[in-house]
Specification:
seven-stranded mixed β-sheet; Nucleoside Triphosphate Pyrophosphohydrolase; globular
Length: about 475
């Protein structure tokens, strides 16, 4: 007899194994996304920061803010740390203290859990429209500070309509760009017999289809990826795993990743040892972040049009005018973060005791809520490892960039969240280590199984958003 948690885990696992829904094929979903892009009118243009409607810079604090005092601010900070080679720097950062919803509504259709996804146009999306959560809204949005319409399906998440909570977590946003920002990642289920209106920009898909769609570049948005990364399939013994029906042969990445996600034994380090490792590093590393006037930031310049680094590195803060025909408010202005170069995030994985382990790094970033979080093996901008441009070394970057083709288990471009980041994408890779891969690790690196990572995912501020995004790409 399964308890409720086990039932939920099995619902997710069954949905993850269904790659072809009775409602739609993955190919038809891609076609539907293109159709939604063609029927919605949108216009996104750059604009000077000092000319954005309803936004201004406070002369005393040097903060760019909305006249309502809501949404978010662009602020300046000075950072001091004993982590890494660069110990002090200034930068702009997004301060958005309110907690928003990233929510997915689910229901069983013909016995398989389906996810209600939204074709959402964000101003920063590279390909304009991407599959987003059912509900993707800041507190300013769902409390109607913008004086527009309430977001669709909000009533299922705020308790006005009955639903069952399957997953409910506070998870961090991009630590290098947001100041201690978190969102509520939530998945709810309504009864199979419940009648729910599926609006024009929404579609039912299985978890397996979402995973399949993420093999394409920039189709599933960051917010969807972070929400589904929190899904756990529980713990099974090896004999039960072997009875599960899987497509492909026994040496496929899908079969091996299933062992890593379901096996609660054969890990390189115990959970208690990993917690001790993280605690020791939090005790060792310091992170002091102090507010600073944007006009006084060292190596940064504000010319009225944008905020940019003197060497045109990292990112800039730009202004945009936005018109999107199917949003709660169809026209608005806002600042956005524009990258100076593309990024790369990658896991190196290796079989230890017959189970795939993921090489994790404990990474300190400016906006982290609690000093450090678990990041992918490699997480950097391309300018940080190219010859002549590097200001710090990137461990294991050559193992990723020079990996043999047969050892590259996943490779795709995935976007950052298009509501705050303008045309930003990262190369996402999962690489199996070669036989001669060095066993010795720097002190802030550790081997963990998928099952262990899923355990840490249940708690706040352990895995950073880059890790969660990359983990979401793994099929079973």
């Amino acid at each position: 007899m399964y308890d409720n948690t086990e039932k939920i885990n099995l619902k997710f696992l069954k949905s993850a194994l269904v790659k072809e829904s009775i409602l739609h094929s993955a190919e038809s979903i891609l076609k539907w996304l293109q159709e939604r892009k063609e029927v919605v009118e949108f216009q996104i243009n750059s604009a000077p920061l000092n000319q954005l409607d309803h936004w201004h810079m406070d002369k005393k604090s040097g903060v760019i803010c909305h006249e309502s005092g809501k949404f978010f601010n662009i602020e300046g900070v000075n950072v001091e740390t004993n982590y890494g080679l660069k110990r002090s720097w200034d930068q702009p950062i997004i301060n958005q203290p309110e907690i928003g919803y990233l929510g997915i509504l689910t229901k069983q259709i013909e016995g398989v859990l389906h996810f209600l996804m939204q074709a959402k146009i964000e101003p920063g999306n590279i390909n304009v429209v991407q599959l987003s959560p059912t509900l993707q809204a800041t507190k300013s949005n769902y409390t109607l500070v913008h004086k527009g319409s309430p977001p669709l399906y909000l009533e299922y998440f705020n308790g006005m309509k009955k639903s069952e909570i399957l997953i409910d977590q506070l998870q961090s946003e991009q630590g290098a760009r947001f100041l201690r920002k978190r969102n509520r990642n939530i998945i709810i289920e309504i009864q199979e017999y419940d009648d729910v209106t599926v609006h024009d920009n929404f579609i039912w898909v299985t978890l397996g289809q979402l995973k399949e769609l993420m093999t394409n570049d920039n189709v599933v948005n960051m917010d969807t990826r972070t929400v589904i990364s929190s899904i756990s399939y529980g713990i099974c013994n090896v004999d039960l795993i072997k009875t599960l029906e899987l497509s492909g042969d026994s040496i496929s990445i899908e079969r091996n990743s299933l062992y890593s996600v379901l096996c609660g034994s054969d890990s390189y380090m115990s959970l208690s040892n990993i917690i001790s490792w993280i605690t020791n590093l939090k005790f060792k590393y310091e992170l002091n972040v102090a507010r600073k006037n944007i006009n006084d930031l060292k190596h940064w310049h504000f010319d009225g049009n944008s905020i940019f680094h003197s060497e045109h590195k990292y990112f800039s803060v730009i202004g945009v005018n936005i018109q999107i025909g199917n949003r709660e408010v169809i026209k608005w202005d806002q600042p956005m973060i524009k990258p100076a170069q593309e990024g790369i995030i990658a896991f190196i994985i290796k079989k230890i005791n017959g189970v795939y382990h993921f090489l994790m790094q404990a990474k300190v970033e400016t906006g982290n809520f609690d000093i450090l979080e678990l990041a992918p093996t490699v997480q950097c901008l391309t300018g940080n490892y190219r010859s002549g441009l590097s200001e710090y070394s990137v461990p294991f970057i050559n193992d990723v960039l020079n990996a043999k083709e047969e050892n590259v288990l996943h490779k795709s471009y995935q976007s950052e969240e298009g509501g705050r980041f303008y045309h930003e994408q990262n190369l996402n890779m999962i690489v199996e280590a070669s036989e001669d891969f060095c066993e010795e690790l720097p002190e802030n690196y550790c081997w963990m199984t998928l099952n262990q990572l899923n355990t840490f995912m249940k708690f706040n501020n352990y895995l950073n958003i880059a890790s969660r995004s990359l983990l979401s790409l793994i099929s079973v």
